[in-house]
Specification:
Helices cover 43% and strands 16% of the residues. It is of the alpha+beta class. Strands 1, 4, 5, 6, 7, 8, 9, 10, 11, 12 and 13 form an eleven-stranded mixed sheet that branches. Helix 6 packs across helix 8 and helix 10 runs antiparallel to helix 11 (197-219). The protein is globular. The two termini are 41 Å apart. The mean pLDDT is 97.
């Protein structure tokens, strides 16, 4: 039976609050400065100074601006590090707008196919509500970018530069999602009216043409071929002619992306370690690379990242960036704010509890470019962000090892760094499919 709050209880709450002197100290500070500013721990910022025993040379940071393309920026940044070093090109970036265009286009088709596949379900079902809540968005996963690159290749930023809508994506997302929801009405009605598969396919093709038109108007038209010129760091002019997005990738990057695996640390009871997982309704390219995760314990997780860094290769990773992190100084540490002391409330939860109860999930992707090892144990990690050079140390953040343990969920590792037993698990078809709303399906 429900029980209301009584006036007498409120009086007791008020008396207890005022009976604790530290409450009044906190009240004065928080009313003037806010909770976080009043709780910032300078000792943590000093401890997490940006000095690392392994520190890859990765150059200036990029800037995703007002868009949710962090996963895309992080992946392309790992490629541009390689290009800059191999071809001696300074201040080079790959086109995030190019991959953005094709991701939006493919996500529209992915949505249409999911609407058709679930057309027998009620509009009140959780699955339909999930699809219609956000038909498409900026976020994504590593495997989703792999699917785009494998199909469409990649181009330098100078070939397809940023536009208003790529840098400030709220407007284009609003109008894309309006159209996709309207099209969902049409497709579900066609199925209900027993229209033929040929009739449905024709209507869907018309819808995709309109999606292409919207994207081309907002983002520009992706190139089929192009010439690429640059001056290397030795002052030599270089010209590559008649490239395609695919041939550019092969010549300037050339990685076999099937060699890379998403490794997660999700210590929840429903996800045993040393097993592969996928997520229902998660993807972008129909028929493209499926999103798959290998779940491992946190010590294995960190060792894999360290081994890849030692080999000179940066690590794409996903985390919950808003938890216990400062944007100005760029420190992510579990003790950077003492909120529990300020508010006199115990906020402690385990990593598994935060995932199970909706307190945390992956919200942002960045690149690990260094680590500080003391007695061969990590103490803090260097992070390349994509928020421009006005935050952190010229755009780079510091992540304490404790913070990684609690709020980092995903890294991408070349399979050659996996021990044999984990390589064997990755090869198997034994994959558990998680629900669409599982936190491991969160888009960075």
């Amino acid at each position: 039976m429900s029980k209301e709050i009584s006036i007498e209880q409120i009086k007791q709450f008020n008396n207890k609050y005022h009976s604790v002197p530290s409450h009044l100290i906190s009240q004065r500070a928080v009313m003037k400065n806010g909770i976080l500013a009043s709780s910032e721990n300078q000792a943590s910022i000093v401890k997490n100074n940006p000095v690392f025993s392994i520190d890859l040379d990765t150059g200036d940071v990029s800037n995703q601006k007002q868009s949710g393309r962090c996963w895309m920026f992080a992946a392309l940044n790992t490629f541009r590090h390689q290009i800059s070093q191999t071809f001696h090109i300074k201040d080079f970036e790959l086109s995030q707008n190019y991959t953005f265009f094709w991701d939006k286009f493919e996500k529209a088709n992915y949505f249409y196919e999911n609407i058709l596949a679930t057309s027998n379900e009620s509009l009140t079902s959780r699955k339909i509500a999930f699809l219609l809540q956000t038909p498409q968005q900026d976020g994504g996963q590593w495997d989703m970018l792999v699917a785009i690159i494998q199909k469409y290749g990649i181009v330098p930023k100078q070939i397809m530069p940023e536009t208003f809508s790529s840098s400030q994506s709220r407007e284009i997302n609003d109008f894309l999602n309006k159209k996709l929801r309207k099209d969902a009405v049409t497709l579900r009605k066609m199925v209900a009216d027993n229209k033929t598969s040929e009739e449905i396919a024709q209507v869907k093709e018309n819808m995709l043409q309109e999606i292409y038109n919207l994207l081309a108007t907002s983002l520009g038209t992706p190139p089929d071929s192009f010439d690429f010129s640059y001056v290397d760091t030795d002052g030599n002019y270089q010209l590559k002619q008649n490239l395609t997005p695919q041939s550019f990738y092969d010549e300037f990057i050339g990685r076999d992306l099937t060699d890379y695996v998403s490794v997660i640390n999700a210590p929840t009871a429903d996800k045993p370690y040393n097993h592969m997982y996928s997520v229902e309704l998660l993807g972008n390219v129909v028929g493209g690379k499926e999103v798959r995760h290998l779940n491992v314990d946190i010590e294995t997780f960190k060792k894999l990242a360290i081994d890849q860094l030692k080999a000179g290769e940066a690590v794409w990773y996903g985390c919950d960036v808003g938890q216990s992190s400062t944007k100005d100084s760029g420190v992510m540490a579990t003790d950077v704010y003492s909120v529990s002391e300020t508010l006199d409330i115990d906020y402690q939860m385990t990593k598994a509890e935060r995932l199970d109860y909706g307190e945390s999930l992956m919200t942002h992707a960045m690149v690990i470019t260094g680590v500080d090892l003391v007695d061969d144990k990590p103490t803090k990690w260097k992070i390349e962000n994509s928020w421009g050079d006005k935050v952190g140390t010229k755009g780079y953040f510091v992540m304490s090892d404790d913070w990684l343990n609690e709020y980092t969920y995903q890294i991408v590792i070349n399979k050659k760094f996996l021990p044999t037993e984990l390589q064997d698990i990755v090869k198997k078809d034994d994959v558990t499919v998680l629900a669409p709303w599982d936190p491991m399906g969160a888009l960075a």
